[in-house]
Here is the input.
Amino acid sequence: MLKPAARLGQLPPYLFAELDRRREAARARGLDVIDLGIGDPDRPTPPPIVERLRREAADPRHHRYPAYEGSGLFRRTVADYYRRRFGVDLDPDREVLAVIGSKEGISHLIWAWVDPGDAVLVPDPAYPVYRTQTILAGGRPVPMPLLPERGFFPDLAAISRQDREQTRLMFLNYPNNPTAGVATREQLGEAVDFARQQGLLLCHDAAYVEMTYAGTIAPSIFEIPGAKEIAVEFYSLSKPFNMTGWRIGAAVGNAEAVAALGRVKNNTDSGQFTAVQYAAVEALTWPGGPDFIQEMNAVYQRRRDLAATRLAKAGWELRVPEGTFYLWARPPGVSDSGTFAAELLERTGVSVAPGPAYGRQGEGYVRVALCCEETRLAEALDRIASLVGRFSESGGAWRKESSQPGRTTKRTWYDVPGSG
Ligand code: MLT
Here is the structure.
């Protein structure tokens, strides 16, 4: 009988694929679904970027294999952008690499850096890929709790001596998905000091670095002196330029880490379509770019204010975030987020992401992605408000009274072999 690799048995279902599946199943049952699950900008990519792709796609020179490390123009443009935006100098030949979206780059960095048995420090909660790729590579994810009372920044002093000694790699991601916490420069400085002392690679996922509100400006890790000795950062075009479907970003920083990632990639993929790299160059050099990012942030800020106010009124516990387009919130009377999210979808058509899919600390939370227009969002909030009261009154006993009992179980998201 055919049988896939045993390591696949160590993985929970992939959160966003599972949310897609549930959303489509709900639509097939006739529900009017409002998707606040995945963080996927709902507005289109700006026209100059689309137009550049259209032009470049017609150029036969780009129809052949792209350069593995990304075109020289793309890498120089990223370096120029880092200088303008963050005041950081990067060598485009040694310290910048094109990736097919941050997800691809992060996954392959783990394969480049982690040997079987190595510990990897992973925030809890966190974007699931840090943990699942560590498991696939035979590493041991060590959770670093992100708690609201610490501003969702890990307590590095609490990491045990044994875990420190076995750790090769640490992940951080600010502004943070899913908690929406924004790290201060001092906090990032603390992490850089820690990584230097321990001699480990610090991987900073900066996918949301452009997405902040009300005067908050999020730093690159390389604004911290000495960071380049031990850190690599992922910059993504996806969120700031509404380009999630285009799959383009950059790994920047420590030359040894960038080279190691490049070696895994050379043996895995053949780079991103050169025309897409040109479109990314257009985005990063477009004179209207900074204003576009500000306008989008203003849109998300209005949605944030609407949702935070309405959810707080409905008794949800949350912090009004200064960055990302997520709300990380505790609905009242909910101790099993998986059941809550499944029932919310089933009964109202509103899809949110269950907190435990991001780690154990996510139990009791759900993540709301502010990725639909205000009128639709207002409707979702009406539906949520009508339901949340009923959920807390029923003491969370929905599963028993559900018309299709047992569709989801709490174990689905986290408790799989090897989850630690
Ligand atoms: C999210 O919803 O967390 C992100 O959109 C997923 C991703 O960037 O892959």
Summary: The chain has two domains: 6-44+291-393, 47-285. Residues 16, 38-40, 103, 127, 177, 369 surround D-malate (CB under 6 Å).
